[in-house]
Amino acid sequence: MIYGTYGSLNVTTIIDAQNGFGYNCSNVTIADKFGKSSVDKPLVAGYPVRVKLIFSGVNSKMNSIAKLTIIGGFDESGHYSIDFKNIPVTH
């Protein structure tokens, strides 16, 4: 499961490297499943799957993401966080 939002919290975010502004994930797609707050799709180790994250209000001139934080969950057993840093943006 990947959370775009969770209740009133925006948990999957990006930070613009140029100005430090944060942008919230507004839509999540994992393979063929779409959601605004979260998407739950069983994943199998060793098999790649396409994930699409949409962020609202992003500066169209952004050329680098300082940090992408993805928040996910394991049913009732807890949550995890994955950070990617220094991601170039192509136009």
Characterization of the model:
With 91 residues, the protein is mostly beta strands. The chain has one domain (2-88). Helices cover 0% and strands 54% of the residues. It is built from no helices and ten strands. The strands form two sheets. Strands 1, 4, 5, 6, 7, 8, 9 and 10 form an eight-stranded antiparallel β-sheet that branches. Strand 2 (5-6) and strand 3 (9-10) form a beta hairpin. The protein is globular. The mean pLDDT is 86.
* Proportion of residues in β-strands: over 45%
Give the radius of gyration. 13 Å
In DSSP terms (H or I, runs of 4 or more residues), the helix count works out at 0
Q: Are there runs of 5+ residues with pLDDT below 50, and where?
A: none
**End-to-end Cα distance:** 29 Å
Which secondary-structure class do the elements indicate? mainly beta
SSE order = EEEEEEEEEE
Largest sheet: 8 strands, antiparallel
Q: Helix content range of the residues, please? A: under 10%
Instruction: Give the averaged pLDDT, no decimals.
Output: 86
- The overall strand count is 10
**Which of globular, elongated, flat, extended, rod-shaped describes the shape?**
globular
Count of discrete domains = 1
